[in-house]
Amino acid sequence: MKKSFVVTMAAALSLSLLAGCGAGGADNASGGAAPKADAGKSGEKVKLSIWHNYTGEDLRAKTMRSLIDQYKKDHPNVELDVQGIPPDGYRPRLKTVAAANEMPDLFVMWPGVMTKEFVSGDLLQPINELLDSKQDWKNNFMPGSFDDFTIDGKTYSAPMALSPTSILFYNKEIFNKYNVQPPKTWDDMMKLVDTFKKNNVTPIALGNKAAWVAQSSILSSLADRVTGTEWFLKAVDQNGAKFTDPEFVQSLTYLQQLGKAGAFQDGFNSIDNTQMEQMFAQGKAAMMIDGGWALTNLAANASKEALANMAVTVLPSMPNGKGDPNTLAGVVGTGLGMSKKVAGAQKQAAYDLIYALSGPEAQKAILDGNNLVSYKAELDTTKASPIFAEVYKMMGNVKRTPVYDGKLSSSAADVVNNGLQELLMGGKPEDIAKKIQDAAAKAVGK
Amino acid sequence: MTKASRITGFITIGLVPALVLYLLFVIVPIFWSAYYGFFDWKGIGAAKFIGLANYAEVIKDPIFWKAFKNNMLVVVASVFGQVPIAMILALLLMRSTLFQRMIRASVFMPMVLSSVVVGIIWGYIYHPQIGILNFMLDGIGLDSWKKAWLSDPKISMYALMVPIIWNYIGPYMIMFIAALQNISPEVEDASKLDGVGPVRKLFAITLPMIWDTVKVAIVLCISGSLKAFDLIYVMTGGGPAHSTELLASYMYNSTFNVYRFGFGSAISTAIIILSLILITGSQYLMKRDYR
After folding, report:
1. What local confidence, expressed as pLDDT, does residue B129 receive?
2. Contact A425/B at CB under 8 A
3. What tens digit of pLDDT does each residue of B59-68 get?
4. B212 with B233: CB under 8 angstroms?
């Protein structure tokens, strides 16, 4: 009787012990190897773990996976533990291991808020050493590329992508049919909406079920044109500007005006951004405001003729706007972060891997896979789709402005997202601005 | 030792493993989560003790109460939708002819599908542009009834009830059929001899005989609806603007999208308390015996 109790307890205990050990394996590997030992040549085995979200069948994922495979081939002595996690579940999983302080050695991470949170949790180590050792590489990044990965003068990653978030896509065939031009001013835009409505064409496709689309793609640029970038950065820090200021309320009013004029199709809050891209690709809407990520989706799903019909521009200028109209909201994309625990021979191997995935050749490979990069590389126009080439050209001519959820804390961004859904269903701009202001003030502790 | 005490001892040992696991993985985390509710914690870095501030925020939070109201709607729709429909179907499909077994299988089928699949299917049925529902309404000339089913906050919650009810009728029906088949034929024969009509028989004999099963079904129904999450998460994600938010989805969003682990923990503790109150309340109400 007693014996079986002991056995059960032992079983339960060993189970809990096993669970506790699972993730600790990686940091035992650092061992006593001399720092700076060249991992590529020395004979001893180095263990390294990496987490990424390149699990899909799109060009970018394939490019990144092949770069990782190439690294494995070039570094036979590195025992690389690769974990691919589907993009939807990647962020929560990374945050969860971060909470438990069980980070993998290297991981794909986002600039801005996430980097800031990880640094404040003392989970990362800077890669300035690597950047400084390869000046040519460092200097070839576009201006501002490292800003969102840099905290207190230390840089924690190098971006492997560039994501403009508010490109205005339009369908040339529909525009020609009704003999109209892409909008240059807000008045043009409202007139266009009117024209298309009269002819039973959906003016702008929108898929706002996940709620970030209206914020990231439309408001980020629209509000920047009205308020100017400086105001926004001040409002984020709650330092001399508030989201209840008239200019921000005015931006919300413009967005609502667009919604009230019937610019978006019915039920836009219940379809997601993929369905919105399909709608536009099938020629069921004249315009779409979407990010650079749409390019890969469109290249994979839209027909050749449909792609040839697409053109891009920036959002129109706003009346009396304080912001520069020749801009696009955008963020640099993900980069590889390095865990604080990486040391010794592991560190060199990790540096090599970062360089293999974000170095000059990698950037070129990513660009050739129809993905924008924040790095000066020649685009091979024979490989890229025409619409991609056009976006790439446009990116060289416009300035980049911040994206709302790239700067705001996650909780404030969530309030903006839900607030915009409410706004587009008829909520009062002043009330929504108030809610956003409360959340933003709370996030910075004021 | 007497035989009786040996049996009790044996039962105790038999229960221990399950009990230990249950305590370790269910009961302990509940208290753990209640404890996290006292902290301001982003999930990373230091947690700051803030006393009851999270709990106070939950109680004052209009979105939380909106979610609670939506959850209550789901409970009501489930108890008064799933249980009666399952009962009617069980009475109709009690016997086992080939036709009845086929219908039974098809009623049970959604239970076999993953709720994500069900959510996506219904998402397409309700789709504002290409949805089959709007298409059908068009076809029969009722195009004025066409709606953006999932994005109009006035109707989206009700639109979501239909798949929720549809999805979970199966298991209750099976439970009722099993209970109905357990009613002994003698009782039926006796009632026939006494000349009881069908309606009277249903209320005087059949329902009282299976009342215990109905009670179990109702409790399962309430606790199941309080946990409701997956279907709504897939179909609307709680949106637009929190209009279809449920307690569980609000807890999930606060914890894993907004990364306020302390606040999320406070919400889950509130969910536990509210659920306990509801379950105890319903148990108490049903104590009044039908028999």
Report:
1. 82
2. yes
3. 999 999 999 9
4. no
